[in-house]
Amino acid sequence: MRILLVEDEKPLANAIKEGLTENNFIVDVAYDGDSALSKIEIEESYDLIILDIMLPKLDGITLLKKIRELKYTMPVLMLTAKGEIETKVKTFGLGGDDYLTKPFDFRELLARVHALLRRTKDVKTSVIKIEDLEIDTEKMIVTRGGKIINLTKKEYQILLYLCMNRGRIVEKRELENHLWDENSTPWSDTLRTHIKNIRRKVDSGFEHKLIKTIPGVGYEIE
Fold first, then answer.
1. Domains of the chain (ranges, CATH numbers)
2. Model-level pTM greater than 0.70?
3. How confident is the model at residue 182 (pLDDT cuts 50, 70, 90)?
4. Are 19 and 108 in contact (CB under 8 A)?
């Protein structure tokens, strides 16, 4: 599952991203409304948006309105320091799906994220299929040729991100930015080791190798 987090307070954004990543979500972060809108228009495949109301350049209320005007239907969880009933009513009226007032416990945020995603699971499939490789994103089960593949949490996150970006080269730096906190970016050897282990588990014994290395650039799922 892929989430866009729109939050201008970087320490809070980093903490939320780290917590969601540990729970096997892929998280993109935007620190202002304009860059968030650009990401949405380019990506178009976010399963959920976590949106702060108080943002620079383009505030959260205006961004929410634009998201719905552009016919994007993914659920939106609004964050704000304001608890006024008028703000809540306006948010829901513009197409917001849930509302969380700061400060909050991450466990409550996570529970609300899961609840919103459950509402849409009947509409969007939870299984990603690439040839004979299948990833059940709800149960976090990976199989190839019907055989279960046992991956570590980080290996699963890397494989899932590559599969969700099938058909394009994912640069090493992009992988690192999405899957590690900015304060704990891994050495390049760490990522290479993970890729090596994933390739051994996913491609070994199969004629068609799904994971392709682009020397000096990154990786691609063919």
1. 2-120 (3.40.50.2300), 127-221 (1.10.10.10)
2. no
3. low
4. no
